[in-house]
Structure formats: structure tokens, C-alpha cells
Design brief:
The chain is α/β, with parallel strands linked by helices. The protein folds into two domains: 214 residues, YjeF N-terminal domain (Rossmann fold, 3-Layer(aba) Sandwich), CATH 3.40.50.10260; 268 residues, 3-Layer(aba) Sandwich (UDP-N-acetylmuramoyl-L-alanine:D-glutamate ligase). 40% of the residues lie in helices and 14% in strands. The protein contains 20 helices and 18 strands. α2 packs across α3. It starts with 5 loop residues before the first helix and ends with a strand.
């Protein structure tokens, strides 16, 4: 799903009306309807609802929601933060359709009067004060209303965006901003919806009538949604066999690090691939084989430190024949001989490659040797590995994760999966996708190895749509972590808990792809 700027959102609304013949009043009616339907579905027990409305179109959306909620038997009170005479256009039209009398508030002092305070008793607040066209800071009466909402214990549902937010920001925001337990926005998200952590609950995107042709963005930025993944997560044909879903060769593991290769290997299968072979240092093989009986294994020549030796090259090239994907790096170590082996394998391989961990560290100071021209190379660095590849510091990476990933993807012709809070997936042409699943409990050893295996497993099944397969793996990986955290809790979560959560992550994603609202 495309992410658009606030100015582009205004252009989308204009184009929808002027080019595609959808009246602006209809767009407002549909927006307010989406808010009302969300409240009725998610807060069905709420009886008393207070809708805070500004004088612009965001307030107009709130008027529509108030009318529809009243029609459904809810006790609705509208707090209008302006003189009704100041309303214009569509907002004025929707105000005059209200079936309930609004309480018009003209000053901060009036917000504290008994007649207003008594009207604020509610089960739910709806924030329809300021929309995505607003630029901070907010002051005056609107700031007072935001402060009032923030001081209450009543759940707040934001219409379009929490009031006071800079919709175009890609960073956490400070200042006078309304808190939100959920956000219902329209047509397409703005950057702040994705990056600014605006709500403690879900953000939903409602289709209010803008056709896909009208949703145009220059940001070259998208958010991964279940709908985007439907094509690669569809039902399997009845006449299936393991050969249809690919055979992944995982190359990794060393003395003391065999678990990483094993976790990557089993994640290949959990992601749906037909076969998974783990090729590892011979002394590590018994441990790898003992983890999961579903894995095939291959012993490799090793160095004195128990890592895969350069002498294993010929055997690895033999093993690579007929494989659909190679996954290189989990637990492979930074032994110089092993790193040289990694670089040689990457240079010679013609099948899709997924490279992670010490497989990436093998290219520190030599990233020019990592070239995906004419083939598919997917790298999955955390910020430290990205910094080593890009020749900069971790703070440099974190200051502008998007630009760092775009620059490296374009320069090395690779797909970059830059892990972290809001993992980024970037193509060589600069198009970027943002993942919204996952949680801090996944900050534990081994979750990256799970991701490596999942990416390889998804790509092995979707060799005609490698990039979408990567998006699916990243989304499902984070969602599996969310499922696991629901039962394990974040502090106790370990990497293999993701494997337990993965079947439910598949089920939720397939179900969400069919739902009316897009949400995260």
C-alpha cells in the first residue's frame, strides 16, 4: 500500500472529485461512516460517545460519525471547538445534518465550565479536531482540548490522525499531540502513520471512494499489508508435492554456533519450502541434525577452529546444483578462511542468495564484491552489519535508515532488508516497503536466523516474484513474534517461539487479506 504525503493526499481528494466524479461530500460521508463502523465493531458496548470537532474537514468527518452513531442508538455529544458560523463548505453541510445539539466552545475558559464538563462524561472520545493538513505547533483552544483528552482515562479514537501531529514526519513526535487508542485514516497512510508511533492500538485505512489511479505518490514508499501478500499466500493446489516448493541449501554453523544454522534450516520448512539441507562444519553436524529430524544435513571440511574451511568449496558447489535458493551466514563465524569461502561462493552462485550475519561481515571493507547484477541477492543486516557494509557508524545508519538502505541497494544491486523497529525492505530501484509487525521481545539471539530461513523458504516457492516473497517473509516473521508475545510475554520470548507462532501468523494474514479495512 502506497504511503503519501499530506499534500499528495489533498491532491488525491481533488482528483477523486474532479477527474473521477466522486463528490467531496460523498468522500466526507464515507470517511465518517468508516469511523462510526469501526467504533460499532470494536467498542460495541460503549453507550456514551463524545466527538470533539474542529472547524475544518476533519470536524466534518466527526459530524458524520456522530450522526451515524446516534442513529445506532448511541448517546452522542458533539463538542464544537469554534463558533458554528465559522464552519464552511462540506463541514458546514454535515453540521446542519446533526440530529443532536452540539456544545459550541469558544475559549479555553469555556472548556472548564460546568455545562461543558458535564457533557464530557463518556465511554469513548472521538478526536476530529485536526487532520493531516495541519502543521504544528497547535495552540489556543485546540491545544486545550487536546490536553483535556490526554488527561482523561477515556479511550480516544483519532479521525484520520491524532490532532497536533505533523503527518509528513518520519520520526517520533513531541509537543501537543492527542493520544490515541486507535486511528482510522482514509485512502492511504501518511508517513507519520507508519513511523511516528501515534497510537497504542491499531491504525486502520478505509477505502472512501478514491480509485487506485488517483492514489499517486512521489515518496516511492509503501507499507506492507496483508492484501499485498495475498498472491503469494494463496491456497496450494490439491496435486502438490515437495518438489513444487523448492529446496533450500543453508550454509552456516560452526563449533559453538550450530543452533543458528539449525534454526535457519527449520525456518525454511516452516515458511513452506519443500526441502531444507543444512551444510555445516563436520564437528557441528551432529548438533544440527539432533535439533530437527526434518532437516537434511551435509558435513563439510572445517578449520582448526571448527568453522567451515575453504577446502569445502568444491563440495558446496556440488551441493548447490539443483537448489532453488542458498542461505549463507547463520553461525558461520568470522574466521578469515571461512570469510574467503563465503565471498567465493557469492561470486560464483547463479541461484538466488540470502546473506545474513557473518555472511555479511565477510564483506566488511569489500562491499564492492557484493554485486547482485543479473541475479537475486537479498541481504538482511541489522544496523551494526549495515554500518560495516556501508563503511559508516551505527548512529549514521540509524539517523537515516531509509536513505542508507536505498543507497546500498542501488549501489550493489541487491534487495536490502534493514532490520529494526519498522524493518525496511528496499529494491535496487529505490522502492521501499515498511514492515509494521514485530515487537521488542524479538530483540533476542536467533530471531535473525529465523528470518534468514523464512526469506529463503518463501523465495524458494516464489522464484517468479522474489521481492514479494521477501515482503511476505518479513511481515510473517514479525507477526509470528507478535503472536508469540501474546502468550509468552516480551521479556521471556526466545527465537524458536516464533516457529510456534508462525502458523497463526499465516492464518491471520490470509484472513486479513480479505477484510474490508487494511490495518496494522
Amino acid at each position: 500500500m502506497k504511503i503519501v504525503s499530506s499534500e499528495e493526499m489533498r491532491a488525491i481528494d481533488r482528483a477523486t472529485s474532479e477527474r473521477f466524479g466522486v463528490p467531496s461530500l460523498t468522500l466526507m460521508e464515507n470517511a465518517g461512516t468508516a469511523v462510526a463502523e469501526y467504533l460499532l465493531a470494536q467498542y460495541s458496548q460503549a453507550r456514551r460517545i463524545v466527538v470533539f470537532c474542529g472547524k475544518g474537514n476533519n470536524g466534518g468527518d466527526g459530524f458524520v460519525a456522530a450522526r451515524l452513531l446516534h442513529q445506532q442508538g448511541k448517546k452522542v455529544q458533539v463538542i464544537l471547538l469554534t463558533d458554528p458560523a465559522e464552519l464552511r463548505g462540506d463541514a458546514a453541510s454535515m453540521f446542519h445534518k446533526l440530529p443532536v445539539q452540539a456544545v459550541a466552545v469558544h475559549s479555553a475558559e469555556e472548556l472548564k465550565m460546568d455545562r461543558v464538563r458535564s457533557a464530557l462524561a463518556a465511554d469513548i472520545y472521538v478526536d476530529a479536531v485536526l487532520g493531516t493538513g495541519f502543521k504544528p505547533p497547535v495552540g489556543g483552544l485546540y491545544a486545550e482540548a487536546i490536553t483535556l483528552m490526554n488527561a482523561s482515562h477515556v479511550p480516544v479514537i483519532a479521525v484520520d490522525i491524532p490532532s497536533g501531529t505533523d503527518a509528513d514526519s518520519m520520526n517520533p513526535q513531541a509537543g501537543t499531540i492527542a493520544r490515541a487508542n486507535a486511528v482510522v485514516t482514509f485512502s492511504a497512510p501518511r508517513p507519520a502513520h507508519i513511523f511516528s508511533m501515534l497510537t497504542t492500538g491499531p491504525t486502520s485505512v478505509a477505502d472512501i471512494g478514491s480509485p487506485a489511479e488517483a492514489i499517486v505518490s512521489s515518496l516511492n514508499l509503501n507499507v506492507i499489508t496483508a492484501r499485498d501478500l495475498a498472491a503469494v499466500l494463496g491456497p496450494r493446489p490439491a496435486e502438490s508435492n515437495k518438489g513444487l516448493y523448492g529446496h533450500v541449501l543453508v550454509i552456516g554453523g560452526a563449533s559453538g554456533k550450530s543452533g543458528a544454522a539449525a534454526m535457519a534450516g527449520i525456518s525454511v520448512l516452516r515458511a513452506g519450502a519443500g526441502l531444507s539441507t543444512v551444510a555445516t562444519a563436520k564437528s557441528a553436524l551432529p548438533t544440527v541434525a539432533g535439533f530437527y529430524p526434518e532437516l537434511m544435513t551435509e558435513p563439510l571440511a572445517e578449520t582448526g577452529e571448527g568453522t567451515i574451511a575453504k577446502a569445502a568449496l568444491d563440495r558446496l558447489q556440488e551441493l548447490s546444483e539443483g537448489k532453488s535458493v542458498l542461505a549463507i551466514g547463520p553461525g558461520i563465524s568470522r574466521n578469515p578462511q571461512t570469510s574467503e569461502l563465503v565471498r567465493t561462493l557469492v561470486a560464483r552462485s547463479e541461484v538466488p542468495l540470502v546473506i545474513d550475519a557473518d555472511g555479511l561481515n565477510a564483506f566488511e571493507g569489500r562491499s564492492e564484491e557484493l554485486n547482485g547484477s543479473g541475479r537475486s541477492i537479498i541481504i538482511t543486516p541489522h544496523p551494526g552489519e549495515m554500518a560495516r557494509l556501508a563503511g559508516c557508524s551505527i548512529p549514521d545508519v540509524q539517523r537515516d535508515r531509509l536513505e542508507t538502505a536505498r543507497k546500498f541497494a542501488a549501489g550493489r544491486h541487491v534487495i536490502v532488508v534493514l532490520k529494526g523497529n519498522r524493518t525496511l525492505v528496499v529494491r535496487p530501484d529505490g522502492e521501499a516497503w515498511v514492515n509494521t509487525t514485530g515487537n521488542p521481545g524479538m530483540s533476542t539471539g536467533g530471531t535473525g536466523d529465523i528470518l534468514t530461513g523464512m526469506v529463503a523458504g518463501m523465495v524458494s516457492q516464489q522464484r517468479n516474484d522474489v521481492f514479494r516473497a521477501v515482503l511476505a517473509a518479513v511481515h510473517l516473521h514479525g507477526l509470528a513474534g507478535d503472536v508469540a508475545a501474546e502468550t509468552m510475554g516480551e521479556p521471556s520470548l526466545v527465537a524458536t517461539d516464533l516457529l510456534t507462532g508462525l502458523p497463526e501468523a499465516f492464518r491471520r494474514t490470509q484472513k486479513a487479506a480479505q477484510e474490508k479495512l487494511v490495518r496494522w
